[in-house]
UniProtKB/TrEMBL annotation:
It comes from the Eukaryota. GO terms for molecular function: lipid kinase activity; phosphotransferase activity, alcohol group as acceptor. PANTHER family: ACYLGLYCEROL KINASE, MITOCHONDRIAL, SPHINGOSINE KINASE. One of its GO terms (cellular component) is cytoplasm. One of its GO terms (biological process) is sphingosine biosynthetic process. Residues 314-324 have a biased composition (Polar residues). Signal peptide: none annotated. Residues 311-332 are annotated as: Disordered. Residues 102-243 form the DAGKc domain. This is DAGKc domain-containing protein.
Length: 475
């Protein structure tokens, strides 16, 4: 045992068990079983209860290499002679497991019982609540009863009573929460409240972006993120339509990309497969959506955007900590729009008919589609993807969707990809779908502008966790 290690022993279910703690991991050896080594990040609680001489340790581990995380709670009976060592061990484990992280977080939890295939409550009760309770979090749980409840709760949330807001839902409820915060008495302070998803909707893009493709649908990984993750500042968008401003945090879609979401509501029973079905249906029709797109571009060079992403990934979490706001700043209103609706200076009108327009932040918009692979949480820009119907065939576009889950569409010459400060859409025809963060909005003229670093999510990685490579690159 080195200076950096602490150990103790106890009996778990009558079996002698050895615990060894290093600065990186906890190792547990039960009787003759193989040692279990748990990274400290996955250790969520350790305590010693002198009255019953009980050492309690809780962590989450993957039982199979590619399996989901599962909660392990060890209650070890400690011999009298080992009481002091067990007590020190518990204290040190708790300290090391929460280095730089606030333990026992106070959580406001919103559950949409009807999100996705309607299993949100059951999943929360069985898999999420036990983990959060084992970590000593305090839970204030509300089941939303209708559309709009999450907005109202966020709008009047007593901000000092909670460390984070947890949304047991899909991406739609988070849209409501952020808009509730934007209309709070102290909107800036409200938007600094860290928000984290437990993925139980049909669209769970936010969870995929924060946790990555392997863990994005793992509700225990999402719980661990809530317990151990750090606040990460993110840009959001000001979406103005008919003089009304709404906050969008993820995506705006028109044409094929809106049809596959809003045009497949009747196929909810399919879970997120309905998006794939909608995509194929739309690609076969290959119908242009009649809109005029214009934007204020910041960058169009795909290689440069890719290189910026890679250098940001190298810096990792150092960049992501939210700046602390002063009291005066926190009581300010939301920032005003900087770009007026009639501004045309440095604006470009996109000249081609569009199969779809997709704009947003966060690489994944669904499990099967990394739409914005070079998106960054806080570059102050919005990524815009425009697929024209000229100079490309239906077969080419269908073929290019083969690599959509890995963001490979990005490299196709026929796909226009750019980063912009703002953009504007004017529908030419009357009929169509417009999806804002997966929610239906009127198919009417609108403008979108970036509001830098206004909202806060809880993140384990300090940026999005979406693996994206150059074509042919070694993995
Ligand atoms: N009890 C409820 N009954 C009906 N709708 C609700 C309820 N609670 C919330 N909603 C609404 O359900 C919508 C979708 O929420 P959620 O984020 O959970 O799922 P989603 O993945 O975005 O969409 P989906 O409904 O396709 O699963 C939101 O607009 C929200 O306002």
């Amino acid at each position: 045992m080195s200076d950096q290690e602490v150990d103790t022993e106890a009996k778990v279910s009558g079996k002698p068990t050895k615990y060894c703690l290093s600065s990186a991991a906890l190792t547990v050896a039960f009787g003759n079983h193989k040692n279990q080594t748990v990274p400290l990040h996955n250790v969520i609680a350790a305590s010693y209860h002198s009255d019953a001489r009980l050492l309690k340790v809780a962590y989450v581990i993957r039982r199979k290499k590619k399996g989901h995380l599962a909660l392990v709670q060890l209650d070890g009976q400690v011999e009298e002679a080992k009481a002091e060592s067990a007590s020190n061990f518990a204290k040190t484990t708790q300290e090391w497991a929460y280095k730089g992280i606030k333990p026992n977080r106070r959580l406001k939890i919103l559950i949409n019982p009807h999100g996705g295939v309607g299993k949100g409550v059951a999943i929360f009760n069985k898999h999420v609540e036990p983990v959060l309770r084992a970590a000593g979090c305090s839970l204030d749980i509300v089941h939303t009863k209708k559309h709009g409840d999450a907005y109202d709760i966020a709008k009047s949330l007593p901000l000092d009573d909670f460390d984070a807001l947890v949304s047991v839902s899909g991406d739609g409820l988070v849209h409501e929460v952020l808009n509730g915060f934007a209309n709070h008495e102290y909107p800036r302070k409200a938007l600094r409240m860290p928000v984290a998803p437990i993925p139980t909707g049909s669209g769970n893009g936010l969870s995929l972006n924060l946790l990555g493709p392997d863990d994005g649908f793992d509700v225990v990984a999402a719980s661990l993120n809530i317990i151990k993750g750090s606040p990460m500042s993110v840009d959001v968008f000001s979406f103005t339509q008919n003089g009304k401003r709404t906050i969008s945090y993820m995506s705006q879609a028109l044409g094929l990309m809106a049809d596959l979401d809003l045009g497949t509501e009747d196929l909810r029973w399919m879970g997120d497969s309905r998006f794939v079905y909608g995509l194929l249906r739309g690609l076969i029709k290959f119908k242009a959506c009649d809109i005029q797109l214009s934007y204020k571009a910041a960058e169009k060079d795909k290689k440069k955007m890719f290189d910026t992403l890679k250098s940001r990934q190298k810096i990792g979490s150092q960049n992501s900590q939210p700046p602390t706001a002063s009291m005066e700043e926190e009581s300010l209103a939301l920032p005003e729009s900087k770009i007026s609706l009639d501004d045309t200076e440095e604006w470009t009108i996109f000249p081609e008919p569009l199969l779809f327009l997709y704009a947003g932040k966060g690489p994944y918009v669904g499990r099967d589609f990394m739409a914005f692979p070079v998106s960054l949480p806080d570059d102050g820009l919005i990524d815009i993807v425009a697929q024209s119907t000229t100079n490309t065939s239906r077969t080419d576009v269908i073929a290019s969707f083969g690599g959509a889950a890995k963001g490979e569409l990005y490299w196709k010459d026929s796909l226009h990809y750019l980063k912009a400060h703002a953009y504007r859409v004017k529908p030419v025809l009357k009929k169509g779908f417009l999806s804002i963060d997966g929610e239906a909005y009127p198919f009417e003229e609108f403008q979108v502008e970036v509001l830098p670093k206004l909202a806060t999510f809880i993140s384990t990685y300090g940026s999005y966790n979406a693996p994206f490579h150059e074509p042919g690159a070694k993995r």
